[in-house]
Design a protein that fits this description.
Layout lengths: L2 H19 L15 H15 L3 H13 L31 H14 L6 H15 L32 H9 L5 H8 L6 E3 L4 H4 L14 H10 L10 E3 L10 H7 L6 H4 L5 H12 L1 H16 L16
Length: 318
């Protein structure tokens, strides 16, 4: 075979492998076009967190809710318009907040590099920064996501619910190419933030025909929750922090599951499968093991892509 043919063959192989990557992400995507994008986002997240300590938990949750519907395409940031009710107004998302942080970051990035950095990438950077600011691990975010043009509240029914059992959770995650380890590691995001009563009412009132309270819940813990969330309470913002160190990214969440002090059915469900139970114990014992697994799973989840454009304004399509 002549050298020219060999070169031509290798060249065609290269193009085939690149084109099959499609919307593949890369670590150096903005090196030439907007090298300071991540620094800008990080500064905005830091500044906003000093004003409101709930910002990191909100950003991490927002990214998760974005990626689970149509991939990480910033569709959760789009506003409802006309007859279309957008994702952010769907039942699981009405308690999402801090959208203004992404708006502010986008505005600053646009001023420097107009039309280059997607809202989806900005949200992925912000979620990583949220973890770092809270004392969690740092990682290099793969870049190059595009922003989606479709956002439907009706699709948010696909979000894993706090009432899910282990088989429902496994199905929800596996549909997105995520494993049981990813499920347990990403659930650890519940170390940050606050929950409204509605997400755990099912465990503390009329649990089933035999028990008023979920028997897997520590009685003292259930008693405390009942006092915060009495039956038929109309208090709009009643609820409690996800764990006692709710602004610190640590492995307390897993320790609480083992003590019967987790908030959601979906948290406690992690003890009902041998695979997930082993992982809960492992992460409860070692913050380092949890951090490493969390980073791996965040990179995997945030690499589910699906968009088509780079929005100029994160709330509206171009």
């Amino acid at each position: 075979m002549s050298m020219a043919i060999v070169v031509a063959f290798l060249t065609s192989l290269f193009f085939i492998s690149v084109s099959t990557l499609g919307n593949a992400l890369s670590l150096n995507y903005y090196d030439q076009t907007c090298p300071d994008a991540e620094l800008i986002v990080s500064k905005v997240v830091k500044d906003e967190t000093t004003k409101d300590k709930t910002v990191p938990a909100a950003l991490l949750r927002m990214h998760f809710h974005d990626c689970f519907i149509r991939g990480c395409d910033a569709s959760v940031l789009l506003s409802s318009k006309g007859k279309n009710t957008a994702e952010k107004d769907g039942p699981p998302n009405v308690s999402l907040h801090a959208f203004y942080v992404i708006d502010n970051a986008k505005k600053e990035v646009e001023a420097l590099c107009p039309g280059v950095v997607s809202c989806a990438d900005i949200l992925a950077f912000a979620a990583r920064d949220a973890v770092v600011i809270s004392g969690g691990p740092i990682w290099d975010v793969p870049k190059g996501r595009k922003d989606g043009r479709t956002s439907k509240a009706s699709e948010t029914i696909q979000m894993p619910a706090p009432t899910f059992n282990i088989s429902q959770l496994q199905q929800s995650f596996s549909q997105r190419g995520l494993s049981m380890e990813d499920l347990v590691a990403l659930s650890g995001g519940h170390t940050l933030g606050f929950s409204h009563c509605s997400s755990f009412q099912n465990r503390i009132h009329n649990f089933n025909s035999k028990h008023d309270i979920d028997p897997s819940m520590a009685p003292s813990f259930a008693g405390r929750l009942k006092s915060i969330c009495p039956v038929n309470s109309q208090a709009k913002n009643a609820g409690t922090t996800m764990d006692p160190s709710s602004t610190t990214f640590d492995n307390t969440y897993y320790k609480l599951i083992l003590q019967g002090k987790s908030l959601f059915s979906s948290d406690q469900a992690l003890l009902t499968s041998p695979t997930t139970k082993t992982l809960v114990s492992k992460f409860a014992t070692s913050k380092e093991a949890f951090s490493n697994a969390f980073v791996k799973s965040m990179i995997k989840m945030s690499s589910i892509t699906g968009g088509q454009e780079v929005r100029k304004n994160c709330r509206v399509v171009n």
